[in-house]
Amino acid sequence: MPVFAGRIPETARERLSKLKGNNTKAIAVVNYGNAQVADALVELVDILQENNFDVIAAASTISHHSIFDGVAIGRPDDEDIAKINEFAQNAIEKIENGGSLESSIPGNRPYIDYKQLPFIVSCDVNKCVFCLECVSVCPEKAIPDDDPADVDLDLCSRCTSCINICPENARAFTGEAFKAKKPAFESANAERKEPEFYF
Ligand SMILES: Cc1cc2nc3c(=O)[nH]c(=O)nc-3n(C[C@H](O)[C@H](O)[C@H](O)COP(=O)(O)O)c2cc1C
Ligand code: SF4
Ligand code: SF4
């Protein structure tokens, strides 16, 4: 589960809440961009447990920051992958031997308020070829199929999916708020953080 503003994404939370665990074993993993996990992992564990999953282990892992491309460049790297492989091996052993999650997970309840990012997702109409891949991938149905440039920013979660999928590189974060935030955010989160594992 990606971390969005220290929480798990609202759409993902809604979908996950519909699953019935029936005591199925689960491993809760949140992935973040070297800034903050905040309450995302505790929230994910809570949702799984509330839906009757048997959470046996949990982790927070790090990959490149999907919005600020100067943060966590090259992550996950070999060191991360080795740690994740070891975690997976230990989780397999725990599945075989039995037992639920015992560690307490860092985070607060109530969770921090979700704050929508003020950035604008724009579309360069001179590059757009109207393939509508962005429309298909958008989890919030925020892009109209008759005008991919007209993003509904009230619906948009700034998830970056449309930016990543666009074959013409027509989509990007733009606007003064994004430009102003980028350098300070990247220098504040330059120091390497490490994945954490819980059993
Ligand atoms: C809307 C949004 C909010 C984010 N909030 C955080 C955050 O609070 N802390 C953090 O470290 N990374 C944050 N990130 C970065 C992502 O968690 C991270 O880059 C992502 O898990 C990478 O996976 P992806 O390539 O599948 O998007 C955010 C990314 C997006 C799109
Ligand atoms: S960033 Fe793009 S894909 Fe994601 S919610 Fe916004 S418009 Fe949809
Ligand atoms: S994915 Fe890119 S090229 Fe295709 S419709 Fe969307 S903005 Fe236009």
Automatic annotation (TrEMBL):
Keyword annotations: 4Fe-4S, Iron, Iron-sulfur, Metal-binding
GO MF annotation: an example: oxidoreductase activity
A Pfam family annotated for this UniProt entry: Fer4_10
Family matches, as InterPro entries: 4Fe4S_Fe-S-bd, 4Fe4S_Fe_S_CS, Fe-S_Ferredoxin
Domain 4Fe-4S ferredoxin-type, residue spans: 119-143, 147-176
Xref: PANTHER family: ADENYLYLSULFATE REDUCTASE, BETA SUBUNIT, FERREDOXIN III
Name under which the protein is recorded: 4Fe-4S ferredoxin iron-sulfur binding domain-containing protein
Originating organism: Methanobrevibacter olleyae
